[in-house]
């Protein structure tokens, strides 16, 4: 069995093709109905991206980018994990939905897994599952993809976030691969099955931090940057600071630029951080997402430049 550390390779994303400002009558009325002050600087309201494309089309766009960036022959991929808030219809509809993603990407031969129920943590759960498959030696290369879009424009603005449509993907590969990437050093999750709770729990985040760092010669402050969900600026800042992170570790640039793209945010933020600032060799980066009752995190170390 190959015991090398699995790598996260070629993270990529695509967004809706139309850029729209938050400042329109529908979303203004929605914010007022939710009792929110119309102050874009307070919340981090800016622009979002909307699409006419389907979930499958968004996923295909991102997967093709990942395969191209990794210079990966689709025939060498063993598995694909498709992550979503929900899958369409009954079993037969889901079979066609899956085929509509895999076949255009040359992946009709792969072993598919579908993940849901984790809401905006599901994509990171998918990366954790892919890492386990690769670490166990049962699969050598696994693609992970998520896609999300708002179906009712009235609900694009919610009490915790302003949503964009889009998709994100990455390849999880054995550490002996020639592909450059980030080593996945740890994955951690904490859950609280309490449907009455509707806020983000800093305690769950602190549990995940402790679990993740156990056995590693690292402190929380050693993490170069935290790539979190793009929820509203004051909520994000408060909850992540309560979890133990410093202001300099947060990456909030995309909150006003694109808003919250469901579970794709941590990978979107990682890609944009790499492009805008670069990733520091041997530095650690944390992908993390929280929803009421759950926190998931993936600890990465940049290998090479």
Secondary structure layout:
Elements: E1 7-15, E2 18-21, H1 25-33, H2 40-43, E3 47-50, H3 55-69, E4 79-83, H4 91-102, E5 111-115, H5 122-136, E6 141-148, E7 166-173, E8 182-191, H6 202-213, E9 223-227, H7 233-242, H8 253-257, H9 265-276, E10 284-291, E11 294-302
Parallel strand pairs: 4-5, 4-6, 9-10
Antiparallel strand pairs: 1-7, 1-8, 2-3, 6-7, 8-11, 10-11
Helix pairs in contact: 3-4
Index terms:
single chain; 305 residues; Peroxisomal Thiolase, Chain A, domain 1; 2 domains; nine-stranded mixed beta sheet; two-stranded antiparallel ribbon; 9 helices; 31% helix; 25% strand
Explain what the structure shows.
With 305 residues, the protein is an alpha/beta fold. It folds into two domains: 7-173, 3-Layer(aba) Sandwich (Peroxisomal Thiolase, Chain A, domain 1), CATH 3.40.47.10; 182-302, 3-Layer(aba) Sandwich (Peroxisomal Thiolase, Chain A, domain 1), CATH 3.40.47. The chain has nine helices and eleven strands. The protein has helices at 25-33, 40-43, 55-69, 91-102, 122-136, 202-213, 233-242, 253-257, 265-276; strands spanning 7-15, 18-21, 47-50, 79-83, 111-115, 141-148, 166-173, 182-191, 223-227, 284-291, 294-302. Helix 4 (91-102) links the parallel strand 4 (79-83) and strand 5 (111-115). The chain starts with 6 loop residues before the first strand and ends with a strand.
């Amino acid at each position: 069995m190959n015991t090398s550390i699995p790598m996260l390779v070629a993270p990529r994303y695509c967004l809706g093709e139309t850029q729209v400002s938050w400042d329109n009558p529908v979303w203004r009325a929605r914010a007022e109905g939710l009792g929110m002050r119309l102050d874009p600087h307070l919340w981090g309201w800016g622009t979002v991206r909307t699409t006419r494309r389907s979930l499958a089309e968004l996923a295909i766009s991102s997967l093709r980018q990942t395969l191209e960036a990794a210079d990966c022959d689709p025939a060498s991929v063993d598995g694909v994990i498709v992550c979503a808030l929900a899958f369409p219809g009954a079993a037969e509809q889901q079979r066609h939905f899956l085929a509509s993603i895999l076949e255009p990407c040359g992946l009709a031969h792969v072993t598919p897994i579908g993940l849901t129920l984790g809401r905006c943590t599901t994509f990171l759960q998918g990366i954790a599952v892919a890492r386990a498959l690769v670490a166990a030696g049962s699969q050598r290369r696994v693609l992970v993809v998520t896609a999300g879009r708002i179906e009712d424009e009235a609900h694009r603005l919610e009490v915790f976030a302003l949503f964009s449509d889009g998709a994100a993907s990455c390849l999880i590969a054995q550490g002996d691969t020639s592909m450059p990437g980030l080593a996945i050093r740890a994955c951690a999750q904490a859950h609280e099955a309490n449907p009455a709770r509707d806020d983000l729990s800093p305690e769950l985040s602190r549990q995940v931090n402790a679990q993740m760092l156990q056995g590693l010669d690292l402190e929380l402050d050693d993490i170069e940057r935290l790539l979190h969900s793009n929820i509203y600026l004051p909520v994000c800042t408060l909850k992540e600071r309560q979890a133990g992170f410093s202001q300099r570790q947060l990456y909030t640039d995309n909150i006003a630029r694109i808003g919250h793209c469901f579970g794709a945010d941590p990978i979107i933020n990682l890609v944009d951080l790499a492009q805008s600032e670069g990733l520091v060799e041997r530095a650690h980066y944390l992908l993390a997402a929280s929803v009421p009752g759950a926190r998931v995190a993936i600890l990465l170390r940049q290998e090479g430049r």
